[in-house]
């Protein structure tokens, strides 16, 4: 009998190791196809849920975006992800309002700052959230993931706060 081996892939964004798949990566983020596949499955699952788990969908989108930022990622992606984390974590803004804030900012003709990715971008990954057994645990883990990522981008907090205060003053001062 032969042993069957599994090839493993390491995500360049979050460091998550998953079995290799034959799937294309997003290409806009610093991620592996394996991590991207897990993320799209998680987001798809939250879209089909009502209530609290669905309410953290935007939080998960922003946590993933900030965790997988880096060279080659559009500055707007990184800024929007961090701004979404700031609004949700520091100001308690619900996901649908964060999404609306992204749309308001996208309508402006701004030059987005290029932020250098920190050495670490959170200890919690999409994998941890995907392991949730129920909607309440999913919500708890999504918040833990977002806080973990936001914390590791600490050097950017003043720039994100200033940008929010300048362009979204109604949300910045909640």
Automatic annotation (TrEMBL):
- Name the domain of life: Bacteria
- A Pfam family found in this protein is DUF5946
* Protein name as it appears in the record: DUF5946 family protein
């Amino acid at each position: 009998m032969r042993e069957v081996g599994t090839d493993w892939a390491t995500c360049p964004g979050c460091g998550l190791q998953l079995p290799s798949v034959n799937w294309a990566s997003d290409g806009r983020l610093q991620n592996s196809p394996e991590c991207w596949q897990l993320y799209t499955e998680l987001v798809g699952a939250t879209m089909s849920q009502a209530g609290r788990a669905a309410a953290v969908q935007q939080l998960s989108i922003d946590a993933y975006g900030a965790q997988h930022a880096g060279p080659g990622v559009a500055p707007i992606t990184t800024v929007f992800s961090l701004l979404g984390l700031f609004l949700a974590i520091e100001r308690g803004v619900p996901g649908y309002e964060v999404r609306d804030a992204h749309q308001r900012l996208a309508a402006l003709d701004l030059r987005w700052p290029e932020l250098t990715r920190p050495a670490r971008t959170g200890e919690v990954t999409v994998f941890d959230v995907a392991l949730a057994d129920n909607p309440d645990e999913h919500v708890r883990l999504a918040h833990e993931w977002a806080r973990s990522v936001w914390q590791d981008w600490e050097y950017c907090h003043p720039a994100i706060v200033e940008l929010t205060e300048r362009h979204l003053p109604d949300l910045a001062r909640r």
